[in-house]
Every structure is written in C-alpha cells, then in structure tokens.
Specification:
13-stranded parallel beta sheet; 46% strand; 286 residues
C-alpha cells in the first residue's frame, strides 16, 4: 500500500512540474522580430513577464485575438520588448484599491526599451495609482547606461480608470525617464480621482519626472497626433488635472537638453474633459 501511495505521489509531482511549465514553454514563436511570440489567451498574455529581452535583443509579442476573459491581475513587468496588439481588445477588471503606493494597470512596470502599440483596452482599473496600459516606466539608474525609450503608439483606451491619487489612460508615471513617445493614441474612457487633494489626472499620463542627476539625451516626452475625448474627473477639485499630462516634475540636474524640448505636444486635441484645468500640461515643478 505504501509503495502504491509513493508511486501516486511521484506521478502527481511529475505532472505538476510539467503542467506548471506548460504555458511558459508552449508560447508559439521564438520572440524575434521575424518570428514573434503569439498570444491567444489570457494565460499566455500573463507569460510576457517571464520573457524579458535585453537592449541588444528585444523580445517581440503579437496579440492574435481579443482577450475577453477579463485580466484581473497586472502583468508584473514588460522588459526590453515590443507588444503589438494588432487592433485586438483586452478587457480589464483590475481592482487593487487595498494596495498602497502600488501601480494598477495592464502592465505594472516597464524596464528598458519598450514599445506597446495597436492595442484597445476596455473594462475598468481601480487602484492607488491607476492607468489603463502601463503603471511605471522606469528609466536609467546610471547616466553611463544607454538612453532608454518608451513608445506608446496607436492605442485606444475605453476603460474607466479610478485612482486613489493618480489616474490616466496610458501611463501613470515616468520615473527619471529619458525619452517617452506617445503617438496616435485615443482616450475615450474616464480617468477619475474621487477624494484626494493631491489628485494627478491626465488624459494620457498622470505624472512624469525628469532628471535625478542623469545626463539626458534630446527628447523627453512627446505626445503627438492624439485625442483625449474622455472625462477627466477630479471630484475634490484641488488636484492637478490636464488633458494630456497631469503633472510634470523636473528635479536634480538637467544636462544637454533645452527645457523647451522636455515636453512637446504636436497636433493633439482635447474634446471633452470634465473638471479640466488646462488643455495639455497643468503644472511644472522645478
């Protein structure tokens, strides 16, 4: 009897080991530009965090169908990668209202050179810092490292984004960043903060930092060819609310970059923005 029990336990352990790696090992493709990883299901979508690239060898992911099985937990990270939604839609149902100083978004954080494009998101996101697509875009921690770029291209937000402090449709926070390009994005959703005097609400980005002593290259933040047509709702009415970028903070030492190039808005418009204080950027804090 004992021998039979041991055999059963061994079979279960082997099966668990194999099945635990099934989704990870079964992503179709090789992650290269010519043969990208193909994403068909929510479980495969969540595997992006397990496939980081490098600055010299980006990983490529392509969404192949709508994800109707709601994403309830953020993807932990996307690192040195290109994600192409191909116009398909991901439905979000993320609720992290009990979290403190945490990002709630489809992708919780990005590292390195990242591009997210051709994606539609709907549903809802609730959290301390809430955004539809990307929580925190983390830049270099060392000025000797190569300049890093985040690109958000041709994305559409239909979701309702509710934050304790921050709410936005694309990115909550750019942290000590070099270059961020947001081009051909549309916000048709709602970005709101209910009761916080420090609310930061942006049609696309709620909060962006530059500097921290790093030697920046040319660029900064560019928002172009985009439309913010959703509601930006600061219920308390005392925060920082703007059509594109809620709050921009420049600190530390800025090198080799004219201030006028730090933020650029090109061919962009705000159609509806309840409680809007400024059409593009509300405040600059040095």
């Amino acid at each position: 009897m004992l021998k039979e029990l041991v055999k059963i336990m061994l079979i279960v352990l082997v099966f668990a080991s194999v099945s635990g790696n099934y989704l990870y090992s079964q992503l179709q493709g090789s992650g290269t530009k010519s043969v990208p990883y193909l994403i068909f299901t929510k479980d495969e979508l969540m595997q992006i965090e397990n496939h980081p690239g490098t600055p010299e060898n980006l990983k490529y992911f392509v969404l192949k169908r709508n994800i109707r099985d709601s994403v309830r937990v953020p993807i932990a990270k996307i690192e040195n990668a290109v994600f192409d939604g191909q116009g398909y839609k991901i439905t979000l149902a993320i609720d992290d209202t009990i979290g403190y100083l945490t990002n709630a978004a489809l992708f919780k954080i990005s590292f390195g050179n990242v591009e997210i494009k051709n994606l539609v998101v709907d549903g809802y996101v609730k959290g301390f810092w809430a955004s539809a697509i990307l929580g925190d875009a983390v830049g270099r921690d060392d000025s000797t490292k190569p300049i890093q770029t985040t690109k958000l291209i041709n994305n559409v937000n239909l979701a309702r984004i509710t934050g304790t402090v921050c709410a936005s449709s694309l990115v909550h926070f750019g942290d000590d960043y070099d270059i961020m390009i947001a081009d051909r994005n549309i916000n048709l959703g709602t970005c709101e903060v209910f009761d916080n005097e420090y609310a930061m609400i942006g049609g696309f980005i709620s909060h962006f930092d530059f500097g921290n002593g790093l030697k920046l290259g040319p660029g900064g933040l560019t928002i172009s060819n985009s439309i913010s047509a959703g509601f930006l709702n600061d219920r308390k009415g005392n925060g920082y609310t703007a059509g594109f970028l809620g709050r921009e903070r420049i600190w530390g030492e800025i090198y080799s970059i004219p201030e006028t190039n730090i933020f650029k808005s090109i061919n962009t418009s705000v159609i509806i923005s309840k409680g809007r204080r400024a059409p593009f950027v509300l405040i600059r804090q040095f």
